[in-house]
Amino acid sequence: MTESLGAVISANDIFRATNSFFEVREWAGEEDDFLLTPDLKRNYHIIFLEACSQPIRMGNERPMVDCPLLIILGPHDAPDFSFPENASVNARILSYSKDLFSISMDLKHHQFFFQNESINAYYKLKEKEGKFIREILDNIQEQQLGGRKAVPHLDLFVAFFDPLFTFINKKAQQNRWEESSRMHVYYRAFLKVLDEHYKKWHLVTDYSRLLGIHEKQLSRSCRKVVDMSPLQVIHQKVLMEAKHLLIYSDLNVKQLAYELGFNEPSHFSKFFKTKMGIWPTEYRDHIRYTSGAEKAL
């Protein structure tokens, strides 16, 4: 149930009563101007990039993104986006403190999304979604500027923020699902090229370059799907093939090392010893003696 003051309250009264828990202001994309945002390191910031003449760079590892765009920054987040030189930007910043959630029970249930001091998330908006955000910020800004003389109870005030936070939460959940699906796609693609090139390439950089993704992105996908690093996945593949060849082929250790892409047989032997605890020849003798090649798979 929405908490109510039980009387008609002016916009100015609300802002005084809430100690200016929030502020909406126009922004043209200047970095120095953003750094002057009130309580930059104490408040949360919702940046609505309604229009930009050129795509925006979202960090070093993220792609260029077109507007409209919604960016969420926590108190510990530094702006991780940049605009191309001479780009024109039409944006607004909604800054608010955690105290905003104490206004009403209707807002308190949104705290879970803003409980972290670091968020640094962005959401690409469809045209209809951008219009929705613009209308909400128009309403909030109109109250802030005193465009409406009175608010009938606190319900109307809360009504401006509850839809906004609900929308952001929904976009966050959608992004998490899309991110999870994307991580699985990257991982499957990684396994495919690994199966084709493990005899040639043993470095993560080789595979990230072939896949056209950043190493950190490849690492996130492996961690998400199998809780292993890309290098561990590579080593696991090479080790599995090495064990198969030791059991079922007549290649000596030197030949086997070259077959698996090692420049020096000693490098392969050390690799195998580190992973298995015994030398390759010891593994071969032990497996063939104890169980026979036919039973080893």
TrEMBL record:
<dbReference type="InterPro" id="IPR018060">
    <property type="entry name" value="HTH_AraC"/>
</dbReference>
<keyword id="KW-0238">DNA-binding</keyword>
<protein>
    <recommendedName>
        <fullName>HTH araC/xylS-type domain-containing protein</fullName>
    </recommendedName>
</protein>
<keyword id="KW-0805">Transcription regulation</keyword>
<dbReference type="InterPro" id="IPR009057">
    <property type="entry name" value="Homeodomain-like_sf"/>
</dbReference>
<dbReference type="Pfam" id="PF12833">
    <property type="entry name" value="HTH_18"/>
</dbReference>
<dbReference type="GO" id="GO:0003700">
    <property type="term" value="F:DNA-binding transcription factor activity"/>
</dbReference>
<keyword id="KW-0804">Transcription</keyword>
<dbReference type="InterPro" id="IPR020449">
    <property type="entry name" value="Tscrpt_reg_AraC-type_HTH"/>
</dbReference>
<feature type="domain" description="HTH araC/xylS-type">
    <location>
        <begin position="188"/>
        <end position="286"/>
    </location>
</feature>
<dbReference type="GO" id="GO:0043565">
    <property type="term" value="F:sequence-specific DNA binding"/>
</dbReference>
